Amino acid sequence: MDTSELVFAGAAEQARLLASGVITAPELLGHYLERIARLDTTLRAYRLVLEAGARREAEAAQRRLDAGERAPLLGVPIAIKDDVDIEGETTTYGSAAHGPAKTRDADVVQRLRDAGAVIIGKTTVPEMMLWPFTETVTFGATRNPWNVDFAPGGSSGGSGAAVAAGLAPIALGSDGMGSIRIPATWCGLFGLKPQRDRVPIAPHDDAWNGLSVNGPITRTVEDAALFLEATTGESGFVAAASAEPRRLRIALSNRLPPLLTSRVGRAQRAALKESGELLRELGHEVVDRDPDYPASVMFDQALPRYFRGCYDDVQTLTHPERLDARTRSFARVGGMISDRRMAAIRDAEARTADRIQSIFDDVDVVVTPGTARGPSRIGAYQRRGMLSTLLSVASRVPFQALFNVTGQPAAVVPWGFDGAGVPTSVQLVGRPFDEATLLSLAGQIERVRPWAHRRPPVS
What we know:
It contains 17 helices and 13 strands. By secondary structure, it is α/β, with parallel strands linked by helices.
């Protein structure tokens, strides 16, 4: 297997190659470090590359492999989003406002280490993870490897760019308003937002008032399933990814949440239409049906929790005065939402979720466009204020946030490309706690319409 095939093989296949002795962990890591040195000056997917530590971890993994030990990700490199703590390193949240280095790994990082993963570095994020583009005053702009004039998405933008360009086989992301699914869409990858509390987020429990979860950005469905098993300690996800799903009843919907203004683009509409045709060909029953979104759900649930989450996060910073003006404005709005108001919002959460999820009384999966349009151009928001930026980005990505409110699993499956050569996707939304059905359906789509072989121009 040549280097290009190896680095794009995916985490599960690499784990098999390492276990069989086809390649060693130090050799595999070396290929990624060489590619990062060569390509990341253009992309800026990594905020920090932990070269020395990763080499030590790869050597230790190889000793374990040589001794006959096996673990799900033993010797496989993984990139970590820069809102997740790594012992001995700063967690910057895309800002110069952060405090000192962390004294312990986040729980999810510890579980990845326990599964044998080699931590290769920390990936870039927008300041305080607020936006679906990854540009900061402190660390500059992260670019999309499919078209470097455009953003890779956000807030897990560096994670998406790294996996797409072959700078990591798998990356940890977090998703509070779509932050795994958006960069996975625009980078041509599989992205999974797991069920809330499925993957640990400690020490940041209940981040963004329950909106945020940790999850994988991967090349293949199997890789995401492997990540879930490694980080949750639960089994069955890998088997689900390879199993043919039963005949499902699937609803197609391109309805926007109430009070959001947007126009779904031609390429995104085509992806939804074509996915429905494919799913019918695969034997599923496909209907056109919309979830019952409460009229003011964005303003009663999603946005207050988002704003207050930013405010709460800013209170933990050592140097909040170093935040850019747009972030400070965002946090000020969040500070206007009282504890009493937030308690009432959380009390109403179950009723909201029950209403939206009532569609699952009749269907197994809801399919929506992944995004309404493609990403913004690099620099498009440099001179915009908070409100102008929020209104603009919300019109690009209206299909994600409500499923953070409900907490249920959702995934994006790569589809085609838009006029700028940027990938599109469709979003699969499952019943609460039913990642297995999403993995099975996504795996079926992947087998008949594969995407992992695609290579972006910067790769």
